[in-house]
Write a structure and sequence with these properties.
disordered N terminus, elongated, alpha+beta, 6 strands, 68% helix, Outer membrane efflux proteins (OEP)
Length: 423
């Protein structure tokens, strides 16, 4: 009996040491962080969302550039040449070169454009901006979904970890009682050793859950751009199923509408590009060869340029054909998205209902298992129950409880997938 007690004491010492090491990762009393905190951090730190914001600002600058390009353009130029001739007559013919020329002028040019044409170019910039903003909203939903999914996974780890800690504490209390009853020969040493093996296995599982929780928590911090390797307690996600908007009003469907407007606007730009164009120009300055009274060669000139397209090989029809093809492509994608969206939502709702039904059944199983453990625990204290029966009851309880946790997490993940489409 003395040798056996020494063996069990060593085993208990190793178990307690292992749990002391794992307990330093997450302990009760630590600050609790909520899902909103991680979502806010992810949105603030996302370089993609900042990129979209900068693209919107760049689009505003493009609109200003268009406005400026149709204002009078003022340029200055100076072209000066000298063509010397030698005394023996070598050099350019003076009738051609005039011995040189000196020109310095300031020119003004303005393209004449109709207001509708100008509005169409502005509309291009506006539609680009709206598309960028819509893409930003979709990316924001993607980020929220990813962060929420990882938060739920990590929260599930914490739930299992907390539960298994409670189970281990229960085993510790039972171990003290069984040890005393074994020393009094109420239970055999082999039964007691079987219980210790079960207890040690639970301790190893607890260590594994600690590692899993810490790894998933690190992934959560990584997704949110939080530079921190520590693990904190997580609050209940409190995710509720939200009502979904009409598909035509969602940000996911709006892109198809914007693409349709872009194609329509591009057709207008094609039409405007085949209309006559006119521009006014004027210049003033000094231009002289100094051949005769060069000081009088200050002057000005002005005029108008008109361009009328006549024939370009039917390129206009070709551009219309490209736009028609693009419209058919857009329509195909829209129809496919609509059918896939409806099917996916229906499938997710079906999965949610089945999971909730299963949770109810598992919850009843947990209650029965808990009752069986309580009964066996009382009988164990009086020596009227077998340790093997207690271990079996405990194993069934652990399986049912872990299954309940897994399905609760699955339920939250499904709700998260449905809520993704609520914008």
């Amino acid at each position: 009996m003395a040798d056996y007690r020494g063996l069990t004491n060593n085993m208990l010492r190793n178990l307690l040491l292992g749990l002391a090491l794992t307990g330093c990762l997450v302990v009760k009393g630590q600050p609790v962080t909520r899902l909103d905190y991680y979502i806010d951090q992810a949105l603030q730190n996302s370089p993609l969302l900042k990129d979209y914001q900068n693209q919107v600002l760049a689009g505003q600058v493009d609109s200003q550039i268009i406005r400026a390009s149709y204002r009078p353009q003022v340029t200055g130029s100076s072209v000066n040449t000298w063509a010397p001739t030698l005394n023996s007559g070598w050099g350019y013919d003076q009738a051609i070169s005039n011995g040189g020329s000196f020109t310095t002028v300031v020119g003004v040019n303005k393209t004449l454009i109709g207001q509708k044409h100008l509005d169409a170019e502005y509309q291009t910039i506006r539609l680009q901006g709206q598309g960028i903003r819509n893409s930003s909203k979709v990316s924001e939903q993607d980020l929220k979904k990813s962060v929420t999914a990882q938060y739920i996974t990590t929260y599930g780890d914490l739930q299992q970890l907390t539960f298994n800690r409670d189970v281990y504490a229960l085993l510790q209390r039972e171990e003290v009682l069984l040890k005393d009853l074994t020393e009094k020969n109420v239970y055999r040493q082999t039964d007691y050793l079987t219980f210790l093996v079960t207890m040690k296995q639970e301790g190893l599982l607890l260590r594994q859950l600690e590692i899993q929780f810490r790894n998933d928590h690190g992934t959560l911090n990584y997704l949110c751009g939080i530079v921190d390797t520590s693990a904190t307690l997580l609050d209940d996600p409190r995710i509720q199923l939200q009502s979904l908007p009409d598909i035509a009003n969602s940000v996911f469907f709006r892109q198809f509408h914007l693409d349709s407007l872009k194609l329509r606007n591009n057709r207008s730009l094609v039409d405007y590009s085949y209309r006559p164009k006119a521009s006014l120009y004027a210049d003033g300055g000094f231009s002289s060869t100094f051949a005769y009274q060069g000081y009088k060669n200050f002057g000005t000139s002005f005029g108008v340029t008109v361009t009328v397209p006549i024939y370009d090989g039917h390129q206009r029809k070709m551009q219309y054909s490209k736009l028609d093809i693009a419209e058919r492509t857009r329509s195909n994608y829209k129809d496919f998205f609509t059918s896939q969206y409806s099917q996916q939502i229906a499938q997710l709702r079906q999965q949610l209902q089945a999971t909730e039904d299963l949770i109810g059944q598992i919850d009843e199983q947990v209650k029965y298992s808990q009752t069986l453990i309580d009964v066996n625990g009382k009988l164990l204290g009086t020596g009227d129950a077998k340790i093997a029966d207690y271990i079996i009851a405990l194993s069934n309880y652990l399986s049912a409880k872990n299954l309940l946790t897994q399905n609760n997490i699955t339920r939250l993940q499904i709700i998260n997938q449905i809520n993704y489409w609520n914008r």
